[in-house]
Every structure is written in structure tokens, then in C-alpha cells.
């Protein structure tokens, strides 16, 4: 006999984030796809993120003190997040919740509230420490028993998430991030290359290297001034660093960032993809990544990539075929790989071709279909719900 069908009419996205990066952008893409399938999306986040998230998600978030605050420690964060989530759950009555995790422990209080309310949830881990510190059993035990589907964006992140929360390894599914590959438009690429250099007061043929990400040490952002100076010496190039973060004041004060200097800091921009079309290469000096959307976005636009091995760990053996790979994130290594990429046409062509194929393989459509399948395990979405 057929069991009761549970329709997914309302999904609550609980963001324990304190800033906006790849995890939040990937979550927004999933939320838009679910909304297009007829699911009502509610969003809750820290008040300070309301404006930026409203533009990203297309809906005003409910303000709630659910962001992770390092100074409060594990117990303090758990208590505050749970206290903030309980009235939200009672008022909004969601059928399910989506919990993006910038770090495995950053949603502990939200997990607790969802578990106690019996609300099914999809928890997605975007990043995890290379040396996990297991959460005390008193905290992790109840969470493991809750109605949660666990997902990680890569195999390494899945293993580290399981080790942190004491989950059986086979309980964490892997769903890689994906992007939409835009159609080729050579005329637009030429125009962007010309216009971006003109805006920076650079010659039309000046080498332009791009960084796009949060300005923090995990992303290797403290290396940018010295890297810019070396690239200027070796290539006559300019390094444009897109993004914001705690290192922004320090970078702006460096001599490399002087007016007309080799390091430019436009801040956070909405047209990262256009910058990739204009650039000669993207550099990813990260020390830790989950599944970097920035790599896939560059690959989809035929922008050559120079990255650390840690940045593309998610790709395993394929990483060395799609990017110029620096095993150690040093100025010398990153500069050498960038110079080789720009001056060796055969190397550049091979890496760019392989990277584009990677972007096609890891499409946004494929990623979203996997998330839909996981959600359908406990709810019916879209047209199927109408017929149920």
C-alpha cells in the first residue's frame, strides 16, 4: 500500500554564515532552482548580511542571530543558535530545512533545534579542516540521530565532516558544485579585454592576472602584494584582486597597491565572470578549499588557472591536467607557474581545454539534479507534488 506523500511546499534556508562566498552563492543557486520548481523559500541569516543576501537570493531574509562567532566557543554558539532558531521554526513551520555549513561545526545549534522539532534537513558541508577535531559525543550524538541528510561538496570534505561529527562515512553523500557554461562570444571577450585594461589605465596588451575570493589567509591573500610585484618584474603584469575580507586594509596599505601599482583592489564585484573573460589567467593560492566555484567559473570561460595543489584537492589526479599546479603556495612557485602558463602556448592550450571539459562535466544542472534527488527521498517536489 502506498504511504503518505510528503510535499515539500516550504523550505527554510538557515545560514550560519558571517560573510558571503562560494558556499552562499551555491546555496542561492539551489534555492532559485527549488523556487522555480514551486517550493516556497524562506531565508534566515545574520542581520548584517540582509542587504547582500537579498540581492543574491531574491528574497529578504529573516534576521536572526544564527551566525557562527568564534569568540563564543562551541557551547556558546550552540546555545545562541538554538535559541534563535526555535521561534523561527515555530513561526514559519517549514516542511524541511537547508543548512549550508561553511565549517562542519558552524551549524551545531541549528542542528539541535531542527532535531528537537523533528524537521527533516539537508546539511551541506562546503569546507572542513585537514585535521578534524571531533565534536564531544554529548553534542554530536543527538545530531547524528536527527532526520538529517548529510552532503559534502567533495570526497575529502566528506571524510573530514564524518570524522568531526562521528558520522559513518557512508552516511555523507558527495555532490560536487557545478556551474553554467556560457556560450562562446569572441567579440565580447575582445571588448572586455580592451575595456578592463583601459579602465585600469593599462596598455591594451598588458598581462592581466586575476584573484577572486575572500581576502584572508586561508585563501592565500597575504601573498598577493609580493606576488603582484614578482609578476610585474617577470611579465610586466598587473594583479587584480577581487573580493573583501579581513586582510583588505593590510593589502591596501602595501606599496604594491599604490595608485598605478601592480596590485589593484576593486573590492567585491558582481561581474567576476566578465573579469575572467578579460584576464590572461586566474591564480588560486588557497591553503584549503572544498570545491572552488571560482575554478569552474574560470574553466567555463577558457581562462587559464594557476592554483595550489590544496586549492584543487577535490579533483584528485585530474587537478594537474586542468591547471598549472603549485605543490607549495610560495611566491616563487606561483610566479613561475604563471609565467610558464602565459609564455608556453602548448601548456596553456592543454590546460584550458582540459579545464573546460571539467566545467562541462561538473555542470550546474547535474549538481542540482542530485540535490533534488536527495530532497525527493523524503518529500515530493514540483510537478510530482501536484499530482500526488
From TrEMBL:
Keyword Transferase in record: yes
UniProt KW keywords: Glycosyltransferase, Transferase
Protein's name according to its UniProt entry: Glycosyltransferase
Transferase listed as a keyword: yes
Domain Glycosyltransferase subfamily 4-like N-terminal: 20-179
Family matches, as InterPro entries: Glyco_trans_4-like_N
Domain of life: Bacteria
Species annotation: Belnapia mucosa
PANTHER family per the UniProt record, alphabetical: D-INOSITOL 3-PHOSPHATE GLYCOSYLTRANSFERASE (PTHR12526:SF510), GLYCOSYLTRANSFERASE (PTHR12526)
Amino acid at each position: 500500500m502506498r504511504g503518505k506523500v510528503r510535499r515539500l511546499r516550504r523550505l527554510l534556508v538557515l545560514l550560519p554564515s558571517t560573510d558571503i562566498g562560494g558556499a552562499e552563492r551555491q546555496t542561492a543557486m539551489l534555492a532559485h532552482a527549488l523556487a522555480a520548481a514551486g517550493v516556497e523559500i524562506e531565508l534566515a541569516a545574520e542581520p548584517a548580511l540582509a542587504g547582500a543576501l537579498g540581492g543574491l537570493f531574491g528574497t529578504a531574509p529573516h534576521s536572526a542571530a544564527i551566525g557562527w562567532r568564534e569568540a563564543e566557543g562551541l557551547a556558546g554558539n550552540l546555545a545562541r543558535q538554538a535559541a534563535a532558531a526555535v521561534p523561527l521554526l515555530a513561526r514559519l513551520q517549514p516542511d524541511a530545512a537547508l543548512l549550508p555549513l561553511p565549517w562542519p561545526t558552524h551549524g551545531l545549534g541549528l542542528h539541535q533545534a531542527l532535531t528537537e522539532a523533528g524537521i527533516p534537513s539537508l546539511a551541506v558541508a562546503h569546507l572542513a579542516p585537514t585535521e578534524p577535531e571531533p565534536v564531544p559525543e554529548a553534542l554530536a550524538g543527538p545530531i547524528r540521530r536527527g532526520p538529517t541528510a548529510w552532503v559534502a561538496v567533495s570526497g575529502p570534505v566528506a571524510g573530514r565532516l564524518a570524522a568531526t561529527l562521528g558520522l559513518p562515512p557512508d552516511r555523507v553523500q558527495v555532490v560536487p558544485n557545478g556551474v553554467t557554461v556560457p556560450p562562446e562570444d569572441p567579440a565580447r571577450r575582445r571588448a572586455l579585454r580592451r575595456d578592463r585594461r583601459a579602465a585600469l589605465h593599462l596598455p591594451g596588451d598588458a598581462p592581466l592576472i586575476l584573484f577572486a575570493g575572500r581576502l584572508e589567509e586561508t585563501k592565500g591573500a597575504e601573498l598577493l602584494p609580493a606576488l603582484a610585484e614578482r609578476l610585474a618584474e617577470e611579465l610586466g603584469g598587473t594583479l587584480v584582486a577581487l573580493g573583501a575580507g579581513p586582510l583588505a586594509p593590510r593589502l591596501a596599505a602595501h606599496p604594491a597597491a599604490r595608485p598605478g601599482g601592480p596590485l589593484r583592489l576593486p573590492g567585491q564585484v558582481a561581474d567576476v565572470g566578465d573579469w575572467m573573460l578579460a584576464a590572461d589567467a586566474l591564480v588560486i593560492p588557497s591553503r584549503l578549499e572544498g570545491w572552488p566555484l571560482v575554478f569552474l567559473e574560470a574553466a567555463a570561460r577558457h581562462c587559464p588557472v594557476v592554483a595550489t595543489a590544496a586549492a584543487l584537492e577535490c579533483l584528485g589526479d585530474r587537478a594537474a591536467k586542468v591547471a598549472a599546479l603549485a605543490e607549495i603556495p610560495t611566491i616563487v612557485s606561483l610566479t613561475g607557474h604563471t609565467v610558464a602558463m602565459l609564455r608556453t602556448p602548448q601548456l596553456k592550450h592543454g590546460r584550458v581545454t582540459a579545464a573546460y571539459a571539467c566545467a562541462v562535466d561538473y555542470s550546474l544542472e547535474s549538481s542540482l539534479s542530485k540535490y533534488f534527488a536527495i530532497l525527493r527521498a523524503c518529500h515530493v517536489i514540483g510537478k510530482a507534488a501536484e499530482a500526488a
